[in-house]
Design brief:
The complex is a heterodimer of chains A (about 900) and B (about 170).
Chain A (H helix, E strand, L loop, with lengths): L2 E4 L2 E4 L6 H7 L23 E5 L8 E4 L10 E3 L3 H16 L15 H9 L22 E3 L9 H9 L6 E3 L6 E3 L14 H4 L5 E3 H4 L9 E6 L8 E7 L2 E7 L12 H5 L14 E2 L9 H12 L3 E6 L5 H11 L4 E3 L3 H16 L7 H6 L2 E5 L3 H4 L1 H22 L7 H8 L5 E6 L11 E4 L2 H15 L11 H16 L3 E6 L5 H16 L5 E5 L5 H6 L5 H10 L4 E6 L3 H4 L2 H10 L2 E6 L4 H4 L3 E4 L8 E4 L4 E5 L13 H12 L10 H11 L22 E2 L30 E2 L46 E2 L25 E6 L13 H4 L7 E3 L1 H6 L7 E6 L2 E9 L7 E5 L13 E2 L1 E4 L2
Parallel strand pairs in A: 1-5, 14-15, 14-21, 16-17, 16-19, 17-18, 19-20, 21-22, 22-23, 26-27, 29-33, 30-32
Antiparallel strand pairs in A: 1-2, 3-4, 3-5, 6-9, 7-8, 10-11, 11-12, 13-23, 24-25, 25-28, 29-34, 31-32, 31-35
Chain B lengths: L1 H13 L24 E3 L14 H5 L5 E7 L5 E9 L8 H5 L5 E3 L14 E2 L1 H4 L12 H4 L27
Antiparallel strand pairs in B: 1-4, 2-3, 3-5
The chains are: A alpha/beta (about 900), B alpha+beta (about 170).
The complex binds iron/sulfur cluster (4 copies) and FE2/S2 (inorganic) cluster (FES).
Chain lengths: ~900, ~170
Amino acid sequence: MPTIYIDNKPFDVKAGKNLLEACLSLGIDLPYFCWHPAMGSVGACRQCAIKVFKDEEDTRGRLVMSCMEGVKDGMRISVEDETAKTFRSQVVAWLMTNHPHDCPVCDEGGCCHLQDMTVMSGHNYRHYHFKKRTYPNQYLGPLINHEMNRCIQCYRCVRFYHDYAGGKDLNVFAAHNHVYFGREKDGVLESPFSGNLVEVCPTGVFTDKTLKEHYTRKWDLTNAPSVCQHCSLGCNTIAGERYGQLRNVVNRYNHEVNGYFLCDKGRFGYEFVNSENRITQPLIRNQAIEAAGHDTVLQYMRTLVSGHTLIGIGSPRASLESNYALMELVGKENFYQGVPDDLVYVEQKIVDILQAGCIHTPSLHEIEQADAVLVLGEDIWNTAPIMALAVRQSVMKTAATHTTEQLPIPTWHDAAIKELVQDDKGFLANVTMLPSPLDEISSATMKAAPDDMARLGFAIAHILNPSLPEVPHAGEELLAKAADISKALQEAKHPVIIAGTSCWNNALIRAAFDIAAALHINEKKAGLAFVMQDCNSMGLAMMRASSFDRAVANIQRAANNVTAIILENDLYRSIPAAKVDAFFSKCKHIVVLDTLHNRTTEKAHVLIPAATFAEADGTFVNNEARAQRSSQVFMPANSEIRESFKWLADVKALLNTVSNGHAKHMEDLLVALENKYPQFAGVSRVAPPHDFRIHGARIPRESHRYSGRTAMLANMTVSEPKPLQDDDSSLSYTMEGYRGLPPSPLIPFFWAPGWNSGQSVTKYQEEAGGALKGGDPGVRLFEQTTTPPVFSKDIPDAFTPRVGKWMLLPQYHLFGSGELSVYTKGIASQSPEPYVSLSKRDAEQAQLKNGDTVSVKSDGKTYALPLSINESLPDGIMLVPAGLTGMEALSWGAWINHSTVTV
Amino acid sequence: MISHLRTMWLVFRHLFMKKATIQYPEEKVPLYPRWRGRIVLTKDPDGGERCVGCYLCAAACPVDCIALQATENEEGRRYPEFFRINFSRCIFCGYCEEACPTYAIQLIPDFEMAEYKRQDLVYEKEDLLINSEGKYPGYNFYNVAGLDAGVKEKGKGKDEETPVDIKSLLP
Ligand code: SF4
Ligand code: SF4
Ligand code: SF4
Ligand code: SF4
Ligand code: FES
């Protein structure tokens, strides 16, 4: 460990870092703009100047940019040096010459890195009395606001959007003192990562348009650490509330999971919490007065649960606690996943693989570090966007590592590395059904039907481990691809294989496993990552309950006294309507707990309002089987809205004559869960218990600047009510409490003295850009063991199109396929209209043109959809977007026929 | 003894001095413009609401008795959707006025706010808004700010150049 002297004090610092990182990691406040821990240094802003001295005798030293100078043992530097300080304040003064007088109306105000750095560098009086440059703004779509006057030309936006995330439609234009950051012309930003501009830009040029609709300053928000609800990756988020409404979602750094970034669905898809469509009142249908209160509904429930056969339908989007509470209530044998059989089958395979433990499943951070990636059949751009971003980094970083291995260039030196690397790329094989934006950075791609992709996988596995069976009737093309890919995987030190459930294909999972296991046998540290569909798909699958189809089958045999309890699950979205109807028709009573009205809640005889993630505490298990705690952001003013597991506990209490025995706190539920089901061992450690205190104090959800405490409710009654009491966690609903660093799963927001913006996260990290102090949140439930792999060897036949029949498969859309995220207007407006896709050949054979109406027959129903011919789609497949609002679930993977109506 | 005499003398002398007490409420106290009394929200010279909903007054308030919610019109001009001051908590420190970047919130020399019911001391925006520019006539924040909120176009504000032609590479 090199020792450097900062202002004559010795410090041990990590080798290979630059001086800015070293200073920040030591907790020294040094202003900067253009450096970003995830993107490295370019030395563009000149804000991070310090003095470097030749030796002890040197008293003059020279000014350097700390972000562009690596640490060297024995180095002497000064941050406090007068010249350096004056220089830094002069740099801000220059940046400020053109900066508008906007703070009061700027959404960045209060979490503005520019404000922080200006104060930090001591520039406080404007001496420049000439005119300010102005810029026109652009319309960048419904999610991002543009106010270009505020730009300080740090280039972070372009470096993120273009270089880091691979977006094409945002760039730098014009020249010299009026460079412009925007699009070529007005238009919606295309990248699904555009929302990160809000946090990456150190000023208010790019701000969150959804927040603007109900603007609140950062200091006025009640925040809590939460987990994104919109895909299986479980990115960590901070959600903020004011006046009973969720106001925004920002990134919560987790070194192992999402790092600094979120996708736009995760960032902006929060508005369902505030929706008009929320269920706010328990309802007992078919009564004179349907609206009921807590007690009435429980009274009524007593008659429904006692003396009836209970069936519980779980949910991949409900928390572990709620699912477990339902399972406990109805009994394990009566608890079913509200997921179709085919999907349960695929998911079960994934859980089996992870639980067996012979292969390591990498975190997103590890995927970034991979040096060869094979994506086998999963459209991760749409189903796991931040994983796609991680894969992109692996491709870019591998090329950079090749360079830095040959030349002594530090890894943080972004500009130099880009220059050297040019178009070199690491290895990515993107094997998918349809083209994806990842194809551009892929060394190998293949577009094929799911079974053919699996066959490619088995062919690769065979090359890697010749004891595995050969793929019968493999064509030359397939073998050539397999040879290329296996060679690259073999050469890599940390290859990662990615597969998922979006093709509803079991063979893909087995093939991915065989490849990873074959690599593993060859002494490689191979990783195998899976993508699931919902935020708690993994948690539900790990409970190993039967599928919904089993429930339908079993209910046929049950006596006519079934009370079904459906937990936070719109069954019509994932299961064909005929099946759901068949199930409901056999139920005597239907009880539904959910957050929003939907087709399933319409069927409920008793409807119970459940809390959304923002109003609930809950544990979710992500795709790598990492259990993570999402904490309650605010208590709903409407006390009828409660966590499902609390409702279910009340119902359970009705059954138990002696009213003990049911878990009181979440951790009790989780302890019971792990005692009963060892696959969940460790889940109760996911966050500190509810009575955890630091020096007797709770952790405040509100900042110490939180305003309006004695006025916000004064219109109703002038005497302030007692602060809300949170009995479920150690977070408080006040401004008072422990102000130091909380344990990492309980960080409600990032703030440090002098650092009001999200960049204060450095103060919470072990080192700049490293793990959070005390370890990153989340508990990985499965770790690698030394179990020898059991290869699958069961290779599917090649996919052959059938005459007059098509295999029906889903296409997931980042914007549109999400049940909850489409409640955000800006996301709904970017969702595609329903369509059906056929390959060019198939369309020609059926004499169909783009836009023709095609009738799709599935599960005894006919759907008329406009045709969109997809030239890259393999023949014999019919693709329909999954989960769009108003579209029913179809039998994915089934062979169906279509008739045509030309209009 | 001496002190007693001295006190009597002082009291006697006050008989001939000017009275400090006044016949309030018939007679009014003279109050000076900087006296910190009732809080008002003033208007811009163009008659629009001056408050831009920046929340700085609320953050500055030591007793947290200001609550508001910002919103904007179609042109992007921010104003408070509601603005509430709980005067039963206000200590008339004037920090809000000091924090206000737009001169919208001002303390005026009116202190006659007594109410029988505490609830009546909760003032909403309608109660606070006055039809005047108050102590700072002529100031309109949007004329000095950079953004175009329907008050002035980009480049038309104080000390602003005309907007850059972003398609030009000329020096
Ligand atoms: S970017 Fe920051 S400094 Fe500039 S106007 Fe906005 S809040 Fe103020
Ligand atoms: S728009 Fe923001 S991120 Fe981009 S250069 Fe300007 S200040 Fe930097
Ligand atoms: S990648 Fe998934 S978990 Fe992460 S922010 Fe996007 S939707 Fe949420
Ligand atoms: S400080 Fe002034 S402009 Fe800002 S919210 Fe308060 S009154 Fe309005
Ligand atoms: S942060 Fe060092 S030059 Fe910008």
